[in-house]
Amino acid sequence: MELDAKKTAVIFKAFCDENRIRILQLLQGGEKCACMLLEEMHITQPTLSHHMKILCDSGIVTGRKEGKWMHYSISAEGVECAQEYLISLKDIKEENYNE
Amino acid sequence: MELDAKKTAVIFKAFCDENRIRILQLLQGGEKCACMLLEEMHITQPTLSHHMKILCDSGIVTGRKEGKWMHYSISAEGVECAQEYLISLKDIKEENYNE
DNA sequence: TAGATATATTGACATTTTTCTATTTGACGC
DNA sequence: GCGTCAAATAGAAAAATGTCAATATATCTA
């Protein structure tokens, strides 16, 4: 699977902000409602909503609407996609460029 | 290995910018001199230097000085560190939170 | 239908990041 | 030492991102 630079950057945007890492840590405890994340994080509701959008756009998190509640969880497929990129990174194809 | 949110974010800063992904793509061809990266990327020398600093700070790239030249390459250990984080992400410990 | 609640969106502002030009540092050869 | 070349640093401008208060939307309940 080949991804262009822009798409790859969008995936990893999930992990380059401290607050988003904390949200992911909370989601490691299993699926959570936005209101529960909001209680634990010290940010306002619109800020949480903004971060959840970035996390969902990256594919690392998926949302499930249930009535008025949004339930978020870590997407195994999303994480695997990021993993595949890292695996491919280590696969160096030495061009023998001399000098 | 437990990393705090801030340190994790620093590692993944390597991958959340389009230009840095392109630099990593170039480094997949093996170790490269800064001047060679500069030729391929359409950015100025100080901008390249800035991105290389972020890549090195993340641990994903290492630099090797040889005379006036800096040679950069992908660090397998750095990438593995990022991989470990992703592996741990998928390891969900379901807290049975009811409701 | 009206009110209440959960989340998303809008718009403004502050901070951070990216980028540039100009300059400095470090290493080489003369 | 002096000039040259590669890379880093400083400082400023522009762009992107993170944050909030206010508002809108969607859903439930009475």
- Overall outline of chain A: elongated
The whole-number mean of residue pLDDT values of chain A reads 93
Q: Give the termini separation of chain A.
A: 32 Å
| CATH class (first level) name of chain A | Mainly Alpha
Beta-strand level of the residues of chain A, as a percent range?
5-15%
Task: Tell me the number of strands of chain A.
Answer: 3
Structural class of chain A: alpha+beta
CATH topology of chain A: Arc Repressor Mutant, subunit A
The CATH architecture of chain A: Orthogonal Bundle
Which pair of chains has the greatest number of interface residues, and how are they split between the two chains?
A-B, 44 and 44 residues
